[in-house]
Write a structure and sequence with these properties.
This protein is α/β, with parallel strands linked by helices. The chain is built from 4 helices and 5 strands. The chain has a 5-stranded parallel β-sheet, with helices on both faces. The protein is globular. It starts with a strand and ends in a 6-residue tail after the last helix.
Length: 134
């Protein structure tokens, strides 16, 4: 699955700190066979990938469409379709499906939202798998 993460107030705080458990959740998602992308309304955020050493997990960075989300994918050079979106804004989540994450909480060390993201992805996938058989 192609999982798109917003950057500001989703992965990093207003003062440029990485949210807890990002690396651990990204590692688990990659191990589960998913592909992770970052996108941002502020452009391609490779500096975040490099600063926090996320290169092994992130397959690409894109400009995030801020309106007409699905219609603007091609225009913005996004050549993969978002299967699941994690964003602090509701609009991309409504359009593509995913998880609207609250902004990081203080104290930051107590913020466990990334694990809630992982659980939401697992729930989403189990719902797509169809009914369980005995």
């Amino acid at each position: 699955m192609n999982i798109f993460f917003d950057v500001d107030h989703t992965l990093i705080t207003w003062d440029y700190r990485l949210r807890p458990s990002v690396r651990e959740v990204f590692a688990r998602l990659c191990a589960d066979g998913h592909t992770i992308y970052l996108w941002s309304g502020r452009g391609r955020r490779w500096e975040v990938v490099h600063r926090f050493r996320l290169e092994r997990y992130v397959a690409g960075c894109f400009d995030k469409p801020l309106y007409d989300h699905a219609a603007r994918l091609q225009e913005l050079g996004i050549d993969v379709y978002p299967d699941f979106v994690v964003d602090d804004h509701p609009e991309p989540v409504v359009v593509f499906g995913g998880y609207q994450i609250p902004e990081p909480r203080e104290p930051l060390e107590a913020d466990d939202e990334m694990w809630r993201v992982y659980e939401a992805i697992c729930r989403y996938l189990s719902g797509r798998a169809g009914p369980a058989t005995a």
